Amino acid sequence: MKIEKMDSDEAALVRLWQRVDQGIATDEERADAALLAGRRARPQDRGRLEALLDDDYSEVRKYAMAALVLHFDDISSPMEVRCWKALESDPDEEVRSGAAMCLGKILWTRPSLASFKRMAAHLKESGQPGFVKRAVHDALFSIARRPPNEWPSVARFSPSLREEEVNWCRIALLEDQVKALEDALSLSPPE
Q: Could you count the other beta carbons within 10 Å of the beta carbon of residue 16?
């Protein structure tokens, strides 16, 4: 049964990419292609996913970014720049939330105090929706290399975060951890 599902996913992905390549795919089909390409993580889909990062449909951008960072492990500097741009200027809240999640993974690999502070500033934005703030909050825990079971959305799930729920003392402690990580990594001899 599982093999049949994998084969049908593969066939569906091939059909979806054909429609995307022909320029006849609907918004939903492009989103499905990005989502399925992330699940399959086939090397040949990487370029197509990169092209979808600039799609007009927000769901396509969100799934393409998540596929590249979370499934293809693209933690490159250019991807980091794209994620920051999406977090700071994409008009869609779900894309901004996804960008924060992706930045959490990217910055986990190279924690820096400057990036942590830049991310934390998004918790203070008055116009930022609560669920974007929740993703930013989780990203801060990721950057500080705290295990996922400590992340606020896992410890106490709610889809959004209110200003009064932010424990600024804990954020300050995380900031200290990131500074220590950054210092330790800069003292480590190159591999």
A: 21
pTM strictly above 0.85: no
Residues 143-177: tens digit of each pLDDT: 888 876 666 665 555 556 666 666 667 777 888 88
110: left (phi over 0), alpha (psi -120 to 50) or beta: beta
CB atoms within 10 A of CB 156: 8
Distance CA 15, CA 6 (A): 14
The pLDDT assigned to 3 comes to: 35
How far from chain centre, in Å, is Cα 148?
15
**d(Cα 164, Cα 179) in Å, to the nearest integer?**
25
Cα–Cα separations (whole angstroms), residue 34 to 37, 129, 148, 160: 5, 25, 25, 25
Token pair recorded at residue 117: 């502070």
Q: Which tens digit of pLDDT belongs to each residue from 79-94?
A: 999 999 999 999 999 9
DSSP letter string, 136-176: HHHHHHHHTT--GGGSHHHHS--S---GGG--HHHHHHHHH
CA 71 to chain centre: 10
Contacts of residues 165-170 at CB distance under 8 Å and 24 or more positions apart, as own/partner, are: 166/123, 166/133, 166/137
What is the distance between the alpha carbons of residues 102 and 68, in angstroms, rounded to a whole number? 9
52-83: pLDDT as tens digits? 999 999 999 999 999 999 999 999 999 999 99
